[in-house]
């Protein structure tokens, strides 16, 4: 576990003043900000007479007592400065807090939207099956199987689900592309993402409609023909 302790006074030299020194090492590029920003030049300098942060690696088994010991040593060495600390993992987590909240909101609204859509589809499937009760009965009497009748009732719904996906893809692509522009380093939106969304949405819709379609297809054809 990493911990950062901060001193509250200003660094000697101050902003805008040139500091000269000898280069003792070069490291590979690394992210010291969030992925919203590109990797920028960074100089890590050793300045024994003044500092802003002390980085420590501590064990997480007894964090409370460890912090108390660090605070005691700090107050002995620097009694004029308050002991202010933060955990690096929490600092990094805060960099993406907005994205985490946005993700949670999307999950909740997606679940709510899918639930409402499934209820609507089930109601529409029930209405359609009720309107075609006699047709289903006649087809069963003439030898149609449960699978054929179920496929007949589900065919129209599958068509509209696919049409809805075609209209949704461009809107989803524009929305996701605009959101990804907030990141300096981002993924590319592949076709497979939209195909997967189409398969999942079609599967959910057809499962919802299929429950009612199979129930209608399994009904006694005599009862279906008696329906007015």
How would you characterize this protein structure?
It is a single chain. It is built from 7 helices and 3 strands; from the N terminus they run ββαβαααααα. The protein has helices at residues 63-77, 88-95, 97-131, 133-141, 146-180, 191-217, 221-226; strands at residues 2-6, 53-57, 84-87. Helix 3 runs parallel beside helix 6 and helix 5 (146-180) runs antiparallel to helix 6 (191-217). The longest helix has 35 residues, at 97-131.
Chart the SSEs and their pairings.
Layout (H helix, E strand, L loop, with lengths): L1 E5 L46 E5 L5 H15 L6 E4 H8 L1 H35 L1 H9 L4 H35 L10 H27 L3 H6 L2
Helix pairs in contact: 3-6, 5-6
Task: Report mean pLDDT, rounded to a whole number.
Answer: 78
Order of helices and strands: EEHEHHHHHH
Number of domains: 2
Question: What is the radius of gyration?
Answer: 32 Å
Major beta sheet, strand line-up: 2-1-3
Main β-sheet, in a few words?
Answer: 3 strands, antiparallel
Helix fraction bin: 55-70%
Distance between the termini: 74 Å
Low-confidence stretches: 6-14
What is the β-strand count?
3
Shape, per Cα inertia axes: elongated
What structural class do you assign from the helix and strand content?
Answer: mainly alpha
| Helical stretch tally | 7
> What is the beta-strand fraction?
5-15%
